[in-house]
Amino acid sequence: MSESSQPSAAPQVKDCIFCQIMVGQLPSTIIMESENVIAFRDINPQAPLHALVVPRHHYGDVAQVAGADPKLLAEMVSLADEVASEFADGQYRFIFNSGPNAGQTVFHVHGHVLGGARLGWNPA
C-alpha cells in the first residue's frame, strides 16, 4: 500500500467504547499502561487472565497499525508480554480478531491477552 493510501489513526472516535475508556467516560480496570498503549481487564473473561491491550489512538484493526505504525504494534506486543509476566507467569496467548467473521466486535484495534491456565483450542 502506498504511503498516501495508508489509513491514519484518529486520536479518538466519538462513538468508540475504547476511545471512551481512554478519556474516562466509561469505567474499566486498567492493569498496566505505557506511553501509547493501555491494558485493561476484559468484561467477559475467557481465562483467569483476560486483558485487552489497546493503543490510545484509534486504528480499526491490526493491519492498519502494522501498516501505519509498526513501532506501536511492537509496543502493544511488549505491553502484552509485561501483563502476562505480571499476571500469568509469562505464559500467554495474544490474539487479534480482525473483522466481524473473525469475532471483532469493537473496531478499535485490540489484542486479547489470555493466560493463567492451560488453554485449549476451539476456534469454531
TrEMBL record:
Cross-referenced Gene3D superfamilies: HIT-like
Catalytic residues of the enzyme: H110 (tele-amp-histidine intermediate)
CDD domains to which the protein is assigned, alphabetical: PKCI_related
Pfam family, any one: HIT
InterPro entries: Histidine_triad_HIT, HIT-like, HIT-like_sf
Domain HIT: start-end pairs: 17-124
Originating species: Jonesiaceae bacterium BS-20
Highest taxon listed in the record's lineage: Bacteria
PANTHER family, per database record: HISTIDINE TRIAD HIT PROTEIN
Residue interval(s) of motif Histidine triad motif: 108-112
Molecular function as annotated in GO: catalytic activity
PROSITE patterns named among the record's database cross-references: HIT_2
Entry protein name: Histidine triad nucleotide-binding protein
